User: Fold this.
Amino acid sequence: MIVTVVTPTLNAASYLDDCLRSTERNASRLVEVEHVVVDGGSTDATLDIAAAHGAKVLTGKDRGIFDAINKGSFNSSGELLGFLGADDVMLDGVLDAVVSAYRRSGRRWIVGGILWIDENGASMGGLAAPPVWMTRRMHVCLGWNPIMHMSTYIARDFFTELGGFDISFRDSGDYDLFARALGHAPYQRLSRPISCFRQTGHNNSATNRVRTLAENTLVCDKFGPRRPMERRVWRAFLKLWFNGRNPAWLIAKTAERGRLRLGLPQTAHFS
Assistant:
């Protein structure tokens, strides 16, 4: 099976080589990897690195990250589509697990967990994939997107049916897409982490936090319950599940909040 991985780039030379190598290592007898790099006008070595790895490269101006990902997705050939940031890396052997789960379950999308790493690749903990019983109504009440796009694979026909990402969103297009997907079909959960999400301090949700929170509210208003009490109940319920299922994540969040209260520099961003 061909699996397409789409990576939007803009002056991404610092980490792109690691990203591309990680997907190359996932090629196997089950999986042919097509990596599509969609570049918005890099002036560093990004395009040279992509070409050296044999990636399919699309260039030209776009209307943001989600527009770039749509372009790459709709100009690719994989039966399954995945999305990986230029500073993220895919864990070894995971695409075999994704394809096996996709074929075995018959479900139209697959969701796994993530590991966080810092700028140098050191571990910062992880976040397990959300539970299979999470409905769209519950998902949007959480206030942040626990379905990590770098650990989600979606059937091409399902992505096309959904119309891809809504490019009116600058930061929360993944939250919106996965909420729409949940309204149509349940995902197959993988208990293992799929990729490493690198926290550099320049991630979209960290640098545009106010805008991201506003967009997340739009998603909840669009798909969630109208009653504030029901929103609070679902949010509290899911927070309990994520905190209980991810104790290291809870400890890291608590420590980071303590640092901020003491006026120390932020070292990581947690939802």
User: Anything to note?
Assistant: The CA atoms of residues 108 and 185 lie 7 Å apart. The two ends are 35 Å apart (CA to CA). The chain has one domain: 2-261.
